[in-house]
Amino acid sequence: MDNTNTDTRPAGAQPGAGRPRTAATRKGAGGKDALASLLKLRELPVITALVLLVAITYLNNPLFLSPQGVKDLLLNATIMMILAAGQAVVIITRNVDLSVGSILGLVAFGTGSIFAAAPGMPIALVLLIGIAFGAVLGSVNGLLVTLAKVPALVITLGTLYVYRGLNNVWAGGTQYFAGDRPAEFGALSVDTFLGIPLITLLAIAVVAAVAIYMAGTRPGRDLYAIGSEPDAAKLFGLPVSKRVFLAFLANGALAGLAGVLYASRFNSVGATTGTGMELDVVAAAVVGGVAIFGGSGSVVGAAIGAMLLTTITSSLTALRVDKFWQQAIVGVLILAAIVIDRVASLRSAKKLRISEARNV
User: Fold this and answer.
1) Where are the alpha helices (DSSP H) in the chain?
2) What burial class does residue 95 get, using C-beta atoms within 10 Å of its C-beta: 0-12 exposed, 13-18 middle, 19+ buried?
3) pTM of the model
4) What integer is the mean pLDDT of 213-231?
5) Model confidence at 7: pLDDT above 70
6) Kind and range of the H or E element at 273?
7) Contact at 8 Å (CB) between 240 and 233?
8) Long-range contacts (CB closer than 8 Å, 24 or more residues apart) made by 47-55
9) Which of 312, 314, 324, 263 is CA-nearest to residue 283?
10) Which is it for the CA torsion 172, 175, 180, 182, positive or negative?
């Protein structure tokens, strides 16, 4: 009998170490990798919080998820989703735009003015005019930030008041009401498809398009590189000023779209429309996993963050919780999101240093 040892494994190797991985083994490893990737998603905590919030509220008030209740939740989140998506693009570049509420107000009142002057104007054209108007206002922010080299926080705080002042001068005491607009324009916020309001479907399409642009195109990925390390991005040859300018322009365009939809969604628009929305928009993006320090996060996460914040308001109202606590909870969420992001960044940096030390 031949007793030759045919085991060619190195000494100390575990049984099966030198054998090819079977399909079942690869499938199991793939499942573990997929689970690990899922658990690392920045959006997972906010999705979990949203699901738990809806479930708890439903258990206490079943009408919360009635067909009308679901429609109201979606409508309440629609405008904020679009604004948060645009804000996410700017924050990813390590900037911020505090003027979005004022841009929305100007465009919303402008929309009312258009319908008052030309009631028969096609809705699609009004949407394009609103987007273009918002893009112009956003481009002013982008030019000031990139040319003056002044922090965006300061610039957009100034344009917040400038745009708000322009709206006050333009509108004065004038308000446009639901009866001043065409019925088909107001129907955008009333009509549904498969139970989902039309303007919400439009918002979802817009968020998806921006998300694809950010993840699937070179300019979109450049924005992440700029936010991660602006100086390194310049050394690498990226057109930093151009990309930042376009980020502000895109944010303004989305705020313009939100302004037109606001005029469809709500009963009146005037000089105070959009006041105070800017902080809610920034909060939605940050809570949705967009790092306030730039370079990470996603447009989809920002949109989910917007849905969470608007759902919190609806949920606590349904549970008859005082409005003060609604604001306090939003504040706690913002602080928690910033702290968690900072801790995660420090842990990632520590792991990277350890890995580099081992490879030396």
Assistant:
1) 23-39, 44-60, 67-92, 100-117, 123-148, 152-171, 183-186, 198-216, 218-228, 230-235, 240-265, 277-287, 299-318, 323-359
2) buried
3) 0.84
4) 92
5) no
6) none
7) yes
8) 47/304, 49/308, 49/333, 50/304, 50/307, 50/308, 50/311, 53/308, 53/311, 53/312, 53/315, 54/311, 54/315
9) 312
10) positive
Q: Look at residue 250 and tell me whether its pLDDT is greater than 70.
A: yes
6 pLDDT higher than 60: no
What is the pLDDT, as a whole number, of residue 345?
64
Residue/partner pairs of 241-244 with CB below 8 Å, 24 or more apart: 241/146, 241/147, 243/93, 243/219, 244/93, 244/95, 244/142, 244/145, 244/146
- Residue 359, pLDDT > 80, answer no
Quote the Cα angle for 263-303-61, to 5°. 85
- Provide the token pair at 292: 């306030």
Q: Pick from 145, 159, 103: which is nearest to 242 by CA? A: 145
Domains of the chain: 60-359 (1.10.3470)
Q: What is the mean pLDDT of the chain?
A: 85
Give the model's pLDDT for residue 197: 93
Which amino acid is residue 61, in one-letter code? N
Under 8 Å between Cβ of 49 and 308: yes
Distance CA 244, CA 141 (A): 10
pLDDT single digits (tens) 78-120: 999 999 999 999 999 999 999 999 999 999 999 999 998 888 8
Q: What is the mean pLDDT of residues 68-74?
A: 90
